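User: Can you write out an input/output pair for a complex, sequences first and structure second?

Assistant: Here is one pair. Inputs:
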Amino acid sequence: MPEPLYILRFRYVKPAKTLIKMEQKLAQIFLYTPTSSKKKRIGNKSVSPVLSARVPFKIFRNFLLESGWEEKDGILFTSREEPYYRAIIFAAVLQCTRDKYLMDEMYTLVKNLPYVDIKFWSKVFIEAFENRNWRRDLYKPVRAMKEVYKYV
Amino acid sequence: MLKQTCDLWEDVLDPKFDGFLAPEPGSEETIADEDVRKIYFDAREFFRRTYFTENMVRILEDVVEAFNDGPKRTFAVTSLFGGGKSHTLLAIMHAFKSPESLRDSEILSFYDTDMAGKLIEISKRIAELEDVEVIVISGKYERSGGMSPLTPAMLDGQQIKTVWGYLAFKLGKYDELRNYDENAIVPSPDILTSLMSGKRTLILIDEILEPTIKLPDTVKDYKKQIMQFVEYIVKAVATTNSVLIVTLPFNIQAGEIKSYDGSYSKEYVDQLYRRLKDVGEFVPPVSIAAGDLSRILQRRLFKKIDSNSAKTFLREFSDTYSAYPDIFGSEDYARKISDTYPFHPETVEILKTIVERADLMKTRDLLKIARKVVRAVWSNPSNSYLIMPWHIPDMEGAEDLLFRGLEGYKTVFTDSVEKSAEGFQNPELAKIALRSIFLKTYPYDQRSKSDAFPNRRMIALMVYEPDFFNKSALNPPSIFSFLQVLEGDVRVQYLYDHDGVFWFYRSRGIRESILKEQENIYNDRINEVKTRFAEYVIVLSKGGRIGHKKIDSPRSLYAIKANRVTVLGEYDELADEFDDYAVVFLSYPVNLTESTPRTDPECIRIRDLIFKAGKNTRSNKNTVIVAYSTNESRLKECLKYVSGILACEKISKDPRAYVEDIEDEDEVEYYRNRAEKFKDEFIDKLIRAVFSAYEYVAYPKYEDNQDVVGVFRMQTGAATLLEGVVQTLEHPSVQKIIRGIKTFSTLRDVLREAQNIDLEEGTREYRVGEILDKFIKHPGMPIADQKDLDIALKEGVRDLRIGIIDTNDKLFFKKVHELRKGERKQFSETGLVPPGIQRDYRILPWKLAVERFVEEIREDLAKERDEIVEYKVQIGDEFIDLDTILSDPGWEDTIRLSPVIRYITKLKGPRVRLNIDPGSISGKPGEEKEVAVEITLEDPDDTGKAFEIEISADGTLDRKIFELHNGETSTATWRVKVPDGSGSLFLSLSAAIDGEVKATRNLKISIDTGTIVTDELKSEHSTTNLVKITDITDEYSLERINTVIEQFRLPEPKANGSISTSYAGVIDISIQGAPPRKALELLRVVKGSGDYNMKIEIGFGENVTLDEMLVAQLTMLNRNVRFHLKER
C-alpha cells in the first residue's frame, strides 16, 4: 500500500484578539494519497482539510519543524504518522488557547505525549472537526484534553 | 544569674586538671601535681567532689555487711572505661580509710535526708569495724600490683615480681610467699586463705586485665596465672573475713557480656568473667537514670549551688512555660530543671547520649566535656540562666570530643548547622535551634525517624533560655515559626523531618536532591521556568490554584477586567490596539522609579510600551498599565522558587531516581509526600517573592501637554496582584482610578479639568461616544468603567444638569406634566432618564437642553388641533404662563427648576390661527424690529357670523381688532423693541374672541450683545472682527476655510467638534483644539467609508480683523456655515 502524505499549509485568517502581539494564521492539514485524483491539487477547494485551526504562526511552525515535518515552498509535509498526529493535536489546542504561557506549556506537553495518547487525541479532534468543518467544534474536546492533563 | 548562683571548683576553670579527671586507685605516687593529688587522695576533698550514687552506697553497705558475716564476699564493679569504676573504688577506699570524713556536714548537705542518713549509718558501721586493712591492687601501675616477672617493682628495697607477691607484701607476709613470687607460681587457695586469715582485709582490684595488653607475649604464662590468681583469691576470700572488690571493664546485661573495651582480647575477658560470674555480685557504679549523672556533674563541677537564689530564675522558666502551654506543653518541666540545675535537663541527656553512643569513655569523658562546656559558658560574656544544650559546641576542642567514632558528622555540623544558620532571618536563633536538633540526634546515626528524636515541643524546651531571648528580643512563638520555616527550607541539606520531628543524618536527604534539581532546572530549562512563572503571576492576579494553594479571585476590581492581564517577556510585543484596559506584568527588570528622568532609555522603553503600537502611536493611549520590578535579584529569586516547584514536581513523580537507597513503597510514598510539602513551601515563598518583586506600576499620564509615564510604588497588602495594581491607581496621589466618577459632578469636574469639556455649562453638544472615547484615548483621563459613566450621565439627566438626545431625536430632559383644567398636583422635579445610553446619543448642556425643550413646546403649540394647549410653569402654588416666564431674562433657570405643566382645554366655537414671520428675531438691545402677523378665523360650526378678534402682545401692534368670517385672513404688523440683557427670550402674542384666548404664539428674540451671528457675510461686515466659524458640516467648507486660514495666516486656528460615520461599523472622531488641517485629513479618511456626519467649529486665538479681501474670500461660504462676528 502506498504511503500516505500529510500536507499542511498556512492561510490568512482574521486574527484573534490577544494581548501579546503574534502573527496568526490558519493551518490546514490535508491527507493526500497517491491514489487521490491528480486534479485535486493541494489546497484546492474541493479537498477539505482534515483539520484547520487558527494558530500563532511562529510557535506552530517551530513545533512542526521540530517534530519532523519538512518544508518546501511554504508547504509542510510529512509521511510519518507521529508528526502528523502531534500537529493535529497541537493545532487543535492552539485554536483554543490564547494565553501565551499556556501555549508554551502545551508545546512541551504535546511534544512529550506518548504515542498511544497522540493517536487517541488526534482521532478525537479529527472526528470533532470533520462533522461540520467548524473550528468551533474543537473547543469541547480540547477542554477535555486539558482536563485530562490537568491544565484546567 | 548562672555565674551568681553557682560557685565552681577552682580546678574546673583550669585545663590542666582535665587529664586527671578520674585518677585510679594506686596512682597516687605517679601524680606529680600537688593540687591534683590533693583533690583525689585527700578523703575530705574527694568526698566533696563525689556524688554517691545509689549503687555506690549499695556496694558500701554490702561490703560492711560482708565484714559482719554477710553472705557475699566478692563484688564486681562493671562498666566500660570511664564508667566510674575507679572512682567507686577510690570512694570505698577513702570510706574505709577515714570513715569520719563521710560524716562531714558540708558533704552531707548535698544529699537528701534519706541518703545522708544512709551515709552516716555506713560511716558509723565502718568505724565500728575498726581494723580493716585496705589493699589496693591496680594492674595499671607497677608499684601497685601491675608488676610482672619481666618488670618487677622495687618496694622498700624488696623486688616483687607478681601480683600475689604484692598482696603478701602489703599484708606484711611476703616471706610466706617469697617462693611463689620469685618463681612466679600461683599459690593455691589454701595458702592464700592462710595468708589473709585473722585479719579483716578489703582487697580492691582495679584494671586487673591491664597487664594482658601491656605485657609482651613472652610472658603469656603470667597472664594466665593472673586469671588463676583471681580465681583462687575469690575462693580464699570466701573462707576468710575478707572482702574482694574487682572492677571489670565490661558491660554486663542479663548475665552476658554485652560489650567490653576493644583493646582487651576476648580470651582474657571471657576467662575473667567465667571465674567471677558464679561467685561475684555485679554492680554497675552509675545507674542508667540521668538523675545520677546530673548529680555527679553538680558534685564534680560546682563547689556551691545557691538553690534559693536559683529559684527566682527558675520561676522565670516556669512562668514562661505556663504562659505558652501550646509550645512547651503542660508538663511541669521547670521541676525537671530544678533537679538538674544549673544544667538544662536536655544538656545532661545529650551528654549522656553522646558518651554512650559515641566512642567515648562513659563518666570520664562526660565529665571532661561538661568541664569544657562549663568553662566555655563561664568565659562567655553573656550571663545565661542555664547551661543549655546549644552551649555544648562552644567548648574548646569540641570537634574531637563530639565526633569521635562519628566522624561523618563533622561536615554535617559545619555545613548544615553552623553555616546554613547564617542564611536564616534570625541567624542566632537558627544556630541554637539547629545545634539543639543536631546534638540531640546525631549520636543515633539513624536515617529513619525515631522516638528519641525531638519534636517541636522538645526543641522549644531545648532552645528557650530567657537571657538569650530577652537580648535578641524574641519570644517563644518565634521558635515555632522558625521551625515552620525550617520544614520548608531545603538549604539545611542534612536535615530530615517528618511530622514535626527533626533530625540530622550524615548523608544528604531529599533536601539536597531538590536543591540540585532546582539548580539544574534553573540553568538548563529557564524557558520552562519562565513560562511557569508567567502562569503563576496570572493566577496571582486573577485567582486560581497554584499546587494545593487556592488564590481567591480579586474582589475589589474596578474597570480592569481580570482576564485582561498578561505577562510580557523581554522579547514579546504587545498587540497593536486595545479597546479595553489591559494590565501587563513585565518578567524582566526595568530600572524606572519616580525620580528617573524622562529621557532615560528605561523610561522611554516603558513609554513606548504604553503609547506605541509597533511604530505608530497607539490610538487608545489610555489603556495599558504596566507593573514591573526594578530589582533583578528579586525576579531571579522568583524564578528560583519556580525552579524549586518544578524540581519538587519532578521528584515527587519518581523519588527513586533522585534519592539513594529507597527501600520500599512506603519510603517512596514518604519521599513523595516530602517533595509535595517542599513544593508547598516553595509556592508560599514564591507568592511572597512575587508580591515583593512587583513594586512599581507605570501608567499613562498627561503632563505639560505631553504624554508621559506616571510611576508609582505598588500598594502592598492586596490579596491579588491585580487588586494591588487597582489600589495603586486609586491612590490619592495617582488618581488614575476615581470611583466617584459614577456621580455626575465628578464626571463633569474630571472632564472640565482634563479635557476642557463642560458638560453642564458648555455651549455645544457632545456625543456620548466622544466622551467615552476620551477615557480610553486620552492619557490624562482616569480609568473608568463604562457602566459608571452611564450611571453618571443618567444622574446628570435626573438632576436636570444635562439633557440627552437619543438616536430618534428624542430629548430626555424635563418631564411635561399633563393636567386637565382645574386639577391641582404637587410635582417633584426630576428629569426624564433614558433607559440606556448608547454611543450615538448626544449630550446637551442644560441651557441647550432647556432651549431645545422650549423649542419642542413651541412646536407642540404650533400644531393644529381641536383643543387649546397651554403650558404653565408651577412656581410655588401659582401657575404662571410659560409666555410670561419666557419674556423674563434668565428664564432658562426658571424653566429648569420648576415643573412645566401642559393644560389641555377643549375648544368650543370659533378658532383663530396665528402666524408670525419671522418666527424669531435677533437684534441689539433697544433696536426695533417688525414682525408680520397673520390672523385666520375658522368656524367649525359654520354659523356664517363675523367674529370680533382681539390680539394682544408685548410691544406695539398697528391694529388690534379684526372682524373676520370663516376662512378669512387678515394681517397686522407687530413692532418689537429688543430688550436689554443678553441671551434670548420669548414674547407672546395671543388672540381672543370675547375675552377667551383662542390662540397664542411666541416670538423668540435673541439679544445681540455686539456679537453678530450670521450665515451670510457681506462687505458691510468688513469693519467687524471674526470670532469663530461654526456649523461647518461639509468637506468643501472645511477645505475652503483651511485654505483661507493658511493663506491669510490667521492666528492659532483651533478646530473643535466631531466627525463620525456609521457605515460598516462606527468611527467616531472627536476633535479638540486640533489644527483645521488635521481635521480635514481625518475627514478625508472617514469620508472614504461612506456617509459621514460632521459638526465642526473653528475658533481663533484672538479675534481676526476682517478686511475686504478676507470678506471676499469668506463669502464663498455663505449659507454653508455661520460666522460669529463682533463689532470693533
